[in-house]
Amino acid sequence: MEMDLEGLYSLDLQALALELAERIRSPRVVDAFCGIGGAAIAFARRGKQVDAIELQASRLDMARRNAQRFGVEDRIHFLEGDCTEKLEPAADTAIYLDPPWGGPAYGKLEQFRLKDFSPDGATLLRQALAVSPEVLFKLPKNFDFADLQRISAPTAILRNEFRGNLEYYTAVFLRNGG
Questions:
Q1: Reduced to 3 states, what is the DSSP secondary structure of residue 163?
Q2: Distance of alpha carbon 130 from its chain centroid, rounded?
Q3: Contact in structure between 111 and 144 (CB atoms under 8 Å)
Q4: CA-based nearest residue to 116, from 95, 142, 135, 136
Q5: Which among 33, 58, 59, 124 would be 20 to 30 A from 73, CA to CA?
Q6: By the 8 A CB rule, do 43 and 17 touch?
Q7: Phi/psi class of residue 96: alpha, beta or left (left: φ > 0; alpha: ψ in -120 to 50)?
Q8: CB-side exposure of 4: number of CA atoms within 13 Å?
Q9: Among positive and negative, which fits the CA dihedral 32, 13, 143, 134?
Q10: In what order do the strands lie in the sheet with 165-174?
Q11: What CATH code is carried by the domain that includes residue 20?
């Protein structure tokens, strides 16, 4: 995988992203913060059509090249820009949210809150829930889960572990039948 310094600490491990892709019910997925493409590639490898949105052109270019290396570039539509301006209603599309956590410094917080994401996690979650029946939100290990309850109760909280170590959580929201 081609990556920059931010990609080094924010990349979704393929093993975990592939497991998550298996759980997504929708045939399409919007990876709202695709970065260098880790999750988008895994979703495409599991047969999903993916819209990969990234604010930084250089990182989107890396995501394109990484998708080519995995042979899934034909299943991913790359979009440069702010995801908050690109999320549109779609009944057959899941939204995967993995907004920046603030780099390695996030671990120094006793409890990570929705307001600590950039952009604000509460605003992102409300927007995603308004346009999609299936939303997945990647959360750090030190996340304050009571914060989610103020917006919407998740259908499930997944523990994403690699080699027996907790890496992060994923909150899954399913509208109409979870």
A1: coil
A2: 17
A3: yes
A4: 142
A5: 124
A6: yes
A7: beta
A8: 13
A9: positive
A10: 76-80, 49-54, 28-31, 93-97, 134-139, 165-174, 156-162
A11: 3.40.50.150
114-117 long-range contacts, Cβ below 8 Å, gap at least 24?
114/147, 114/148, 114/151
DSSP 106: G
Domain extent, residue 148, equals: 5-174
Length of the chain, in residues? 178
Place of tokens 């346009």: 131
Q: Side chain identity at 143, as an amino acid letter?
A: F
pLDDT in the model for residue 11: 61
Q: What is the pLDDT of residues 39-93, one digit of tens each?
A: 999 999 999 999 999 999 999 999 999 999 999 999 999 999 999 999 989 889 9
Tokens of 141: 């290990």
What are the structure tokens assigned to 108, written together?
Answer: 């120094």
Number of domains in the chain: 1
For the segment 103-128, the average pLDDT, to the nearest whole number, is 87
